[in-house]
Recover the amino acids of this structure.
């Protein structure tokens, strides 16, 4: 009780918050590259607001005033990196004019917007003359203008940020103007926007579970005992999260629900067996002792499978998965205490559960289900103990399904496979905005960082060979249609300034052909910009430069292809050039690099996780049943049921992402409980002296009924998540329902069919021993 109160206090300190970098593996080179250069090159928390004109173009006073209003409002947002704010109205967006003895920088629309037709014409002329350098801010048809900015991840409050950005959208939307918003802060902010609906789904799911539990066990006066154990386990799990200071992302609310449902299912199994023993013994304490003796071994094995399913996700070095793994392990381990220690003690102090007529489940079966359907279901339940082609066909079909699932697992997609964000539905506002913005501007960015010897070495960052290589990389990457632009000091500064100092002749818009000229041009640029602004291209030590690769999306195929192209360029262009022998090119950084890092880890993590889970199931099942064959049988059942997840994911086009891996990991150990409890009941009945076939039937009709009740409660609780505004919740709800259905079929039909058909030694030896005891008169009658 004291420990529970301690954990309950931890629940009070729990706070829902998103920490972006915790979604990526901390020790992966891409993430380390991002962390090292984020202060100089900017972070992944970038906002893009696009103002689209439905009629005409942006060159009218009303539209230009809105651009300025949006620019100023973005610059006032908390956490904004002020030097990163860029738009047509920003003083940081400028062009340079060369005059005798000077270089004059001019803004396009700062500090004031044009006030008459002549000024509008001048602005139009200036913009069209510098279309190339404004490609990330003005669309090619001049109907859309963008305002972009970066934000400090450490101080970003996604909830407040989202509300403030939406106020900007509302203030600048009218009949002729549509405002679209995109970027990682907005994607994460939508989780808080939908939090009331998500909370409603959570409450509806909890209510549905209680209702289904009442339908199954409501004919007994203590039907609600599993709710108590489930609630206490939730207090332990959430308290651990609070005490450890873990951040709780709103998108992940489905995880604690599934964990609580797991505890509830163990409570239902225990309660169902208790009722069976109570009906047989008619004595409360004897029934509690017998139930505990029978249920503790399979319950321990089931909980170990559950813990194994979630704890190994912490091996990937991804902080958010570590938190889920550790908290999930504590949450599920508390089930062992709550269900197999607290629940027996609690019921021992409670009156004997009275029977209040039939349960709703029994009424439905006897009164609502037609007689012909009852006969069909009864014949279905007898398939495992009925020799013939049908049983053989079921076992053969299970093996073929297993092979299909393994093949689907080997070809499982990693990462995102569609544009936008798969967290939300394709027709959601966030994905509509992302799609609209991506038609004109890049929303994803990857870095290639070059590190050179320090000045004055000829091969330093401004050396002729280095500048030419950077320029060649830009041309090389433009072969990829997913690359919208390549931004670097060579193309955006040196080439532009080189052209200006040669009277604007287009042929001089190219890499500089002399080291002194490159240094001079960079000198003119640095001293014409705000302090620190030039570091987005080259750090202040002038030996490290960032090449920004602007992408259409961060799909796994896009990132894999980009990385292959960079490897090819380095092999064919950089390594053979002796002038670049001391140059080092590292990639990928930026937002694209973070997602590529996660993709690199997730598939390996999933394989390792599945392997460890199967090993845990094998070892503990072999020890519990004192048979390696039993362990292998449960491993095959686990593979059969849970590799079906890969079949479903392949059909739905769902990839392994940071969001889906925890749910899949829970699914690995989620339903193997069904088979463990039923096989344990078969073993117990054989130990009591029942023939094997009769023991199988008792296991199917008694424990199988509890399994079906558990299945109904969990699926009933999962179904409300299908209506969540998050596509992730919808897909995971269907996936978990599918997983539990296949696990139930495996536990209720396939495993009993295998036991009845092949009579494995870990069961049949008990039958032989009991027959010998009966023959010798030494058999012991069990209550």
């Amino acid at each position: 009780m004291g420990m529970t109160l301690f954990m309950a206090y931890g629940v009070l300190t729990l706070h829902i918050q998103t920490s972006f970098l915790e979604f990526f593996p901390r020790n992966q080179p891409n993430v380390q590259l991002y962390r090292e250069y984020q202060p100089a090159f900017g972070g992944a928390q970038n906002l893009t607001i696009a103002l689209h004109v439905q009629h005409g173009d942006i060159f009218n006073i009303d539209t230009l005033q809105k651009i300025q209003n949006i620019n100023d409002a973005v610059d006032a947002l908390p956490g904004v990196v002020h030097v990163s704010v860029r738009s047509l109205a920003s003083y940081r967006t400028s062009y340079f004019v060369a005059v005798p003895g000077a270089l004059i920088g001019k803004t396009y629309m700062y500090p004031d917007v044009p006030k008459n037709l002549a000024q509008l014409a001048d602005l139009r002329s200036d913009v069209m003359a510098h279309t190339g350098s404004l490609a990330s801010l003005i669309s090619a048809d001049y109907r859309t203008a963008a305002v972009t900015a970066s934000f400090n991840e450490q101080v970003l409050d996604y909830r407040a940020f989202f509300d403030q950005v939406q106020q900007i959208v509302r203030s600048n939307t009218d009949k002729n103007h549509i405002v679209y918003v995109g970027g990682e802060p907005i994607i994460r902010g939508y989780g808080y926007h939908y939090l009331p609906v998500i909370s409603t789904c959570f409450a509806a799911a909890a209510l549905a579970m209680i209702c289904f539990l009442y339908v199954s066990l409501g004919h007994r006066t203590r039907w609600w005992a599993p709710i108590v154990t489930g609630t206490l386990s939730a207090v332990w799990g959430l308290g651990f999260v609070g005490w450890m200071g873990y951040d709780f992302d709103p998108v992940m609310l489905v995880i604690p629900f599934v964990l609580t449902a797991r505890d509830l299912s163990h409570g239902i199994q225990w309660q169902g067996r208790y009722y069976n023993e109570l009906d047989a013994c008619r004595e409360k304490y004897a029934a509690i002792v017998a139930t505990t003796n029978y249920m503790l071994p399979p319950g321990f094995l089931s909980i170990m499978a559950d813990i194994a399913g979630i704890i190994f996700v912490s091996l990937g070095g991804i902080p958010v998965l570590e938190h889920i793994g550790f908290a999930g392990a504590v949450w599920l381990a508390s089930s062992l205490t709550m269900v197999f220690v607290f629940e027996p003690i609690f019921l021992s102090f409670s009156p004997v559960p009275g029977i209040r007529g039939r349960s709703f489940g029994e009424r439905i079966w006897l009164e609502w289900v037609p007689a012909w359907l009852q006969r069909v279901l009864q014949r279905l339940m007898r398939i495992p103990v009925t020799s013939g082609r049908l049983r053989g066909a079921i076992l053969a079909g299970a093996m073929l399904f297993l092979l299909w699932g393994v093949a689907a697992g080997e070809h499982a997609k990693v990462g995102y496979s569609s544009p936008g964000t798969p967290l939300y539905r394709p027709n959601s506002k966030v994905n509509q905005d992302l799609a609209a913005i991506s038609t004109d501007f890049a929303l994803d960015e990857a870095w290639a960082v070059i590190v050179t010897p320090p000045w004055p070495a000829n091969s330093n960052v401004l050396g002729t060979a280095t500048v030419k290589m950077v320029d060649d990389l830009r041309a090389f990457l433009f072969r990829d249609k997913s690359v919208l632009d390549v931004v670097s000091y060579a193309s955006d500064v040196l080439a532009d300034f080189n052209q200006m100092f040669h009277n604007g002749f287009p042929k001089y818009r190219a890499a500089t052909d002399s080291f002194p000229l490159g240094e001079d041009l960079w000198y003119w640029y640095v001293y014409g910009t705000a302090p620190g602004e030039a570091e987005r291209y080259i750090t202040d030590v002038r030996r490290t430069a960032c090449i920004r690769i602007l992408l259409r999306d961060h799909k796994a195929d896009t990132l894999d292809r980009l990385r292959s192209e960079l490897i090819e360029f380095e092999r064919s262009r950089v390594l053979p050039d002796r002038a670049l022998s001391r140059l080092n090119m590292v990639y990928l950084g930026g937002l694209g690099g973070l997602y590529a890092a996660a993709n690199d880890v997730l598939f390996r993590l999933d394989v390792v996780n599945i392997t460890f889970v199967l090993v845990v199931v094998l070892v503990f099942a072999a020890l519990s049943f004192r048979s390696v064959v039993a362990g292998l049988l449960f491993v095959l059942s686990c593979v059969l049921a849970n590799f079906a997840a890969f079949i479903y994911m392949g059909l739905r086009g769902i990839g392994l992402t940071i969001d889906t891996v925890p749910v899949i990991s829970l699914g690995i150990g989620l339903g193997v409980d069904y088979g463990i409890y039923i096989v344990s009941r078969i073993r117990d009945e054989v130990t009591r002296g029942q023939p094997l076939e009769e023991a199988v039937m008792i296991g199917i009709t008694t424990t199988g009924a509890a399994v079906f009740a558990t299945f109904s409660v969990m699926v009933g609780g999962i179904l409300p998540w299908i209506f969540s505004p998050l596509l992730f919740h919808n897909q995971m709800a269907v996936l978990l329902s599918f997983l539990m259905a296949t696990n139930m079929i495996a536990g209720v039909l396939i495993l009993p069919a295998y036991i009845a058909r092949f009579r494995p030694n870990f069961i049949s030896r008990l039958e032989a021993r009991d027959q010998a005891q009966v023959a010798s008169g030494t058999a012991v009658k069990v209550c």
In short: The first helix runs from residue 2 to 12. Residues 686 and 767 are 6 Å apart (CA to CA). Residues 42-192 form one domain.
